[in-house]
Amino acid sequence: MWHPWTALRERLDLVLIWTEALPANVLGATDGRRIWMTPRQLQAERRCTLTHELIHVEHGHRGCQPEAIERQVRDAAARRLIPLDRLIDACLWARGPEELADELWVDQATLDDRLSGLTQAERDAINAALAQRDTHDV
């Protein structure tokens, strides 16, 4: 399982700054040397925001990025936080998206990004697991 706090600890070149100064709709930002995060996030949101900002740093991004880049970073963060095997396991018993996000330890936006970015092969794997579960439940 991906642990962004471990990844941050291993990056001696990065500093995390907690601040209330970010705009209301911004949870995190980076300039490549510092990551700013708002403390007004729940634990799963902090995990997702930190992963998102670390991916920006990995790609050398500084400051605001075009929407196409943001979409790529959101997709990469969602994939890192929600590997397919964990997604399949959680899909087998979760009764809705909130329960699914909670089990995967992510926020709803990250779950939505992961689900919207599924490849056909990933969709097929999830559907096969669900079909197998349903066969055994009968």
How would you write the strand order of the largest sheet? 1-3-2
Structural class designation: mainly alpha
Instruction: Write the element-wise H/E pattern from the N-terminal end onward.
Output: HEEEHHHHHH
Write down how many β-strands occur, each being a DSSP E stretch of 2 or more residues: 3
Give helix % range: 55-70%
Shape: elongated
Q: Average the pLDDT over all residues and give the rounded result.
A: 95
What's the gyration radius in Å? 17 Å
How large is the share of residues in beta strands? 5-15%
Biggest sheet statistics: 3 strands, mixed
First and last CA, distance: 33 Å
Low-confidence segments? none
Count of runs of 4 or more consecutive helical residues: 7
Description:
It holds the Pfam family Peptidase_M78. This is IrrE N-terminal-like domain-containing protein. The model has no long low-confidence stretch (mean pLDDT 95). A three-stranded mixed sheet has the order 1-3-2, with helices on one face. It has 138 residues and is mainly α. The protein has seven helices and three strands; from the N terminus they run H-E-E-E-H-H-H-H-H-H. The two termini are 33 Å apart.
Short description:
Helix content is 59%, strand content 8%. The chain has 7 helices and 3 strands.
